[in-house]
């Protein structure tokens, strides 16, 4: 087979492999407890729903955005969301005490494209039971 065809087919295979990895990483994020807990906060917040409009669309994370960070004990995400009225980002901060423990939301807020911020969740310092948790 000529070298040009080999390079072409290798490029196609690499592109396809990259697309599959991208898709799997996005799925991994969307199934994580800290991601799901934040979306629950968004879906249950009347002011945020009014600002965005329904139905809501949750878009893929920008994996190259330096705000998006997850390690064994902390997670920070910037989730793009939109609705018929507006669009913005759902900012999520979550942590856990140890590996394999439950994730605790620390803060969730919606920032609309016009700069307006709508706080959705901040745990009560008086009552730790208010924290939203999920494994």
Automatic annotation (TrEMBL):
Which Pfam families does the protein's record reference? Coa1
What keywords would UniProt list here?
Membrane, Transmembrane, Transmembrane helix
Q: Where are the transmembrane segments?
A: 6-25
Cellular component GO terms held in the UniProt record: mitochondrial inner membrane
One GO BP annotation is: mitochondrial respiratory chain complex I assembly
UniProt cross-references to InterPro entries, sorted A to Z = Coa1 (IPR014807)
- Name the record gives this protein: Cytochrome c oxidase assembly factor 1 homolog
**Naturally occurring in which organism (per UniProt):** Ovis ammon polii
């Amino acid at each position: 087979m000529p070298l040009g065809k080999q390079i072409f087919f290798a490029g196609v295979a690499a592109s396809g492999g990259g697309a599959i990895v991208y898709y799997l990483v996005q799925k991994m994020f969307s199934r994580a407890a800290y991601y799901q807990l934040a979306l629950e906060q968004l879906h249950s917040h009347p002011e945020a729903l009014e600002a965005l409009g329904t139905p809501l669309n949750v878009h893929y994370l920008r994996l190259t955005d330096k705000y998006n960070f997850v390690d064994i004990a902390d997670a920070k995400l910037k989730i793009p969301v939109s609705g018929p009225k507006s669009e913005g980002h759902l900012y999520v901060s979550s942590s856990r005490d140890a590996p394999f423990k439950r994730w605790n939301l620390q803060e969730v807020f919606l920032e609309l494209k016009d700069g307006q911020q709508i706080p959705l969740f901040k745990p009560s310092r008086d009552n730790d039971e208010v924290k939203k948790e999920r494994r």
